[in-house]
Amino acid sequence: MKEKKVVKIEERIPKLKERRKQKSNRRLIVYVSIFFTLMLLIVYFQSSFSQVQTVNVRGNNLASADWVVNESELLQGVSMWNLGGSELVERLTDHDAINAVEISRDWMNTVVITVTEHERIAYIKDGNSYAPVLVTGEIYDNGGQRATPFDAPVLRGFEDNQIREEMVNELSQTPSGLRQRISDILLEPLDNDPGRLTILMNDGFVVSSTVTQFSERIAPYPSVVEQLDPEEEGIVHMRMNPYFERFNTEDEEEEIEIEG
Amino acid sequence: MEEVKMNRLTKRALLFLSLLLLAVFVLFSRFVYIQAAKEVQGTDLEELLNQRWSQTQTIEGKRGSIHDRNGDVLAEEISSYTIIAILDERFESYVEDPRETAQKLGQVLDMDPHQLEGMLTRDAVQVELGPKAKNISFEKKREVEKLELDGILFREDPRRYYPKQTFASHILGYTERDMSVARMGLESSLDDYLKETNGQITYQKDGRNRRLVNAEEFIEEPENGKDVYLTLDSRIQMAIEQTMNQVQEEYDPERMMAIVANAKTGEILGMSNRPSFNPNQYEDIENYTNFNVTSSFEPGSTMKVFSLAAAIEEGVYNGEETFESGSYEVTDRTVRDHNQGRGWGEITYNEGVQRSSNVAFSKLALEKLGPESLYNYIDAFGFRDVTGIDLPNESPGLIAEQYTIDAATTAFGQGTAITPIQQIQAATAIANGGKMMTPFVIDRIVDSQKGEVLHENEPEIKGEPVSEETANQVLEILETVVTAEEGTGRPFAIEGFDVAGKTGTAQIPQEGGGYLAGHGNHIHSFIGMAPADDPEVVVYVAVDRPDLEGHQAGSEPVSLIFKQVMEQSLQYLNITPTEEDEVASVHDNIEIDDYEGEKAQSVKEELAEQGLKVTLIGDGESVIRQSHAEGTELMYGEKVILMTNDENPEVPDVSNWSLRNIYLLEKVTGVDMEVEGTGFVTKQTPPPGGNLNGLSRMIIELSLTSGEEQTEEEIETDNDSPEETEENEEDEEEFFMD
User: Reduced to 3 states, what is the DSSP secondary structure of residue B324?
Assistant: First the structure.
């Protein structure tokens, strides 16, 4: 043991020297690389590399992508790391049709804006074209763009804002499958029945109901229609008690005419 | 001397001491007394303490509600509001400007502003504003709140409410608005079940009226009233109420009665009277009687159903046998047929039933059956006693059996007076293979707090007055009353259903003897069962003294009610599901996938299997576009349009398509649709079959030819079509006795 402890210094010196050199080298490399990384970071943040280069808009239908991109102001030298979250969302939801906005980063310089629009619950005839009615009850002015009512029913005779809002509210509570079945909703008020509706269904049935409690009253429609012969003509009354009123067959009509 | 002084001193000290001791003893014994007796000057200390430190509040129970068979609420307890005006200036909010407040309130409450102002200027701390400001609805309360008036407050009170308004009113009856007293109908007869018991809570409080946290609480739970479920079906009842309103408007009869019952069980599905009332406005009641169970009157020819059954059961009825109609002598009196006694010559008994011949039934009663046997059947059909229906104030029948002729007149429904519910009960025997069912309206009484059924009614066989064969034979003959050329029941035929039934036109006894004369001065009635081969429903309708024009038959208002009520009852019994969860179970929604690029035919098959109707555009192999976006939920039977990769697809046939489907077609094909009109497609240009490719637009015409306006016209012509009126005149049944 004692012998081993005695090491000749001559043997150790070159090794020590080398080690010391290595150590200082390494340190230098670390310092330099930290310096360069910092430099790079500064350059990155100062240059356009850190700025948003492309904006993709998804989920828009009524709001144009250009509008969304412009309004987001993301292409005006905004840093990828500071997109301006809530303010940006607020600006975008100012749009009549937009309900919610989600922003996410995609790769280095791309931002994806996913827009959730208010559901188009119906359309309303506006001159020659149709204007979408949003779930909020507002008629969306799409600047004369041609919209076709393939994804929601058409409301007719709903000039009055209040009754339209009520109708839209009822529609929003109607099961979506059933909403897909409705083609036209005609408001045909009578003195004693101001909310009388005539509803044209895709399957060819005509339904009579009311604006008040529409969603509740129309709900049993599938099971009622199930029992009816699709060839038979008549009106399905979906009020307090659903029932089917047959139209007289044509032969009988003629008979009455002859006798009358 | 010195000693004497000392002695006196000691004595005095002793006296003082004993006085002191006495005082201490008196005080101390008072303590002990108070401790033991706990009473000071006649006040119970413990009670005082309790009063001081504890508070008792009532917990209100809820009166039970009444439901129909499907659980729809017919009567319930809701909150109502009473307006209170604070007039005292010391309050933070009080009526500062009585005039303006009165003006605004008057408009909303429909009250005289001057009167209101008078109340608002009274010298009082607070006032209530009269009956119109009491027990107002939530909606009204909101309206008043919107006025934002100072010093106008609301007190919440429970109140009885009948959400369906004039609806089975005589069955339900009513309670005072605050439910203090139950006045009529089931509300009154089931009051013991429906009534709630209030509970109370007692707790201890501190000097500032705050509740002590860890102190004992005594809670006596309130007991809510029990819920009653009726056998009534709201939809059938609604049909009765609606048609009765219609008849009331058109014919203004003195009274009307209608009962719908399940033929197999005796459950009452609907029952109503006119005049009726709205139980929410019970101040306006003009008629307190439930005629259906309380009013016994001479039924007229509907009685012949049961006489006929008796004759068949006894084996004395031969339908092919003939008799001379017209008139028939019974001792000193003459029975005449209803066409002024002219009769129809020699006819068979079957025809006699169809024509409702009084002579036929007099002969059956007196010659074939014999009075004694007839009265036995009157007993067996339960006409002498009450039916035992669970409604209050039921009347028994009054059977005429004094003279020989009484047997004859009873057989055809005159002289003897019975109630509508008795006729319904007897009719169940005919409809139910001879088994007569006790009618009932209460299905069950439930304690919803404990989830316990306290009382449940089961269908009960009252008796078997006739055999199954007899019942079926009667049904067959009654069916001919409605179907035969000469049958009096023809106006009661319902398309698509076989009805068995019997008309009745009863004369109304006049005060001082004899019967009322003149057109329409009768009780017109009909008892019908359907479907005739195995009846499910029995309906009785009676209309008393309708206002008839000269050409109108008395059966018109009756048939109006009967046909609509029977038709709808039959429909409802088949089309039952109305609740949403049941709807969902019919068919689940179908979610659309993305089919782009998939094989057109296999997609079509797959969707068709799920219940969708698929229209393929073109004969291409694979799908290139689809009408509904991925993830859309569609209902069973919806149309889906798929565009295939055909180079020259054909123009599809879109006749009878809806507008929305046309726009879906536009979306799929890219061909602009030029649409005219509203409704369903009646015309398309270009016609189907042409080449869709290169087509820039299609012209589509829509119209609603079979729309509502036309139906309304049809109904009108139906009602006063001349053909029917002529026929109806023959149905007039009259009966002359002098």
Answer: strand
Put simply, the answer to whether B639 touches A202 (Cβ < 8 Å) is yes
- Greatest CA separation for chain B: 159
Residues of B in contact with A223 (CB under 8 A): 575, 577-578, 582-583, 586
Assign A4 to helix, strand or coil: helix
Q: Is B357 exposed, middle or buried (0-12, 13-18, 19+ CB in 10 A)?
A: buried
Which of chain A's residues have a Cβ under 8 Å away from the Cβ of B637? 203, 222, 225
Cis peptide before B649 (omega within 30 of 0): no
User: How confident is the model over A115-122, as a mean pLDDT?
Assistant: 83
Tell if the CB–CB gap between A184 and B659 is shorter than 8 Å. Answer: yes
pLDDT value at position B8? Answer: 87
Helices (H), A118-213: 161-172, 176-181
DSSP symbol at A48: G
Cα–Cα dist B334/A5, whole Å: 155
Measured in whole angstroms, how far is the alpha carbon of residue B68 from the centre of its chain? 7
Comparing CA positions, the residue from B660, B316, B85 lying closest to residue A122 is B660
Annotated catalytic residue, options B65, B80, B276, B301: B301
At A23 the three-state DSSP class reads helix
Tokens of B698: 């299609």
Is B93 catalytic? The answer is no
For the residues B561-565, what does the mean pLDDT come to?
90
d(CA B223, CA A6): 101
Please check the confidence at residue B615 and state whether its pLDDT lies above 80. Answer: yes
Q: Does B108 score more than 90 pLDDT?
A: no
Report cis status (omega within 30 of 0) of the bond before B253: no
CB neighbour list of residue B609: distance below 8 Å, 6 or more residues apart: none
Count of helix runs (H) and strand runs (E) in chain B? 23, 31
Asked if residue B69 lies in contact with residue B231, where contact means CB atoms within 8 angstroms, the answer is yes
Q: Which residues of B touch A206 (CB under 8 A)?
A: 704, 706-708
Label residue B530 exposed, middle or buried (CB < 10 Å: 0-12, 13-18, 19+). buried
CB-CB under 8 Å, A203 with B637: yes
The shortest CB-CB distance from A240 to any of B238, B590, B723 is to B238
- Cβ contacts of B425 within 8 Å, gap of 6 or more: B266, B381, B382, B387, B389, B436, B437, B438, B439, B462
pLDDT, tens digit (0-9, with 9 covering 90-100), for B8-50: 889 989 999 999 999 999 998 888 888 777 777 777 777 787 7
Q: For B60, what's the count of Cα atoms within 13 Å in the CB-facing half-sphere?
A: 13
| pTM exceeds 0.90 for this model | no
Provide ipTM, 2 decimals.
0.73
Mean pLDDT of chain B: 84
- Which residue type, as a one-letter code, is found at position A242? P
pLDDT value at B207 more than 80: no
Closest CA to B669 of B650, B655, B687, B686: B650
